[in-house]
Amino acid sequence: MLRPKHQQFVRGDKRMDKEGLLRLLEKIGQRIHEQRDFLTELDNAIGDGDHGHNMDKGFQAVHDRVLSNPGPDMGKVLQQVGMALISTVGGAAGPLYGTAFMRMGGLLAGRQEASLEDLPRLLDAAIGGIQQRGKAVRGEKTMLDALIPAKEALEAAISAGKPAVEALADAAAAAEAGVEYTKTIRATKGRASYLGDRSIGHQDPGATSSMLMIQVLKETLQERDQ
Questions:
Q1: Any idea where the domains of the chain sit in the sequence?
Q2: Which residues, 6+ apart, have CB-to-CB distance to 185 below 8 Å?
Q3: Three-state SS for 64?
Q4: pTM as predicted
């Protein structure tokens, strides 16, 4: 039996492989499409009013360009996703999410599978890319307010030896709490910063789309573990 830090994404002896990653990306695209109008509604309140539609457009490009013609390994697939998002998602979200996926792709270059212990490193790479590209930190009402708590919760769960399903559930719960936290703080980045204190009371759309992705990862793992 593998030690806790090597717990795997899927039931049995398998880790998440490239095919699993492609299925995960398809499910993320479906969830973004389902929540497109909600994300846009959130952005109408404090932004340009296009986050949901832009993200939906981006993941449609992922479907058309990447899922139909994926690269040879997980790293290349994630880099393809990043490039698709950068080229199709308008506003700040495209460069930020695109950079995040490309940074993750760099970590998995040449890899055909990934284990639970890879996830905090992948999230850390994504967070670092977003911070560098967006010049943002935690507590500024951005996607980082969902991603950083999720990474920290995941690290704590792995250190505690929790099974993969529980670790991802903790990460998703932390992301959800992070989204709730964005309602209580003032935006200091992007169009939302123009509202000043009037941005308080609204949840951040970028944090919400990040949360949705982590939720889908958790749900996909739960389905496979049944």
A1: 15-221
A2: 139, 140, 141, 145, 200
A3: helix
A4: 0.90
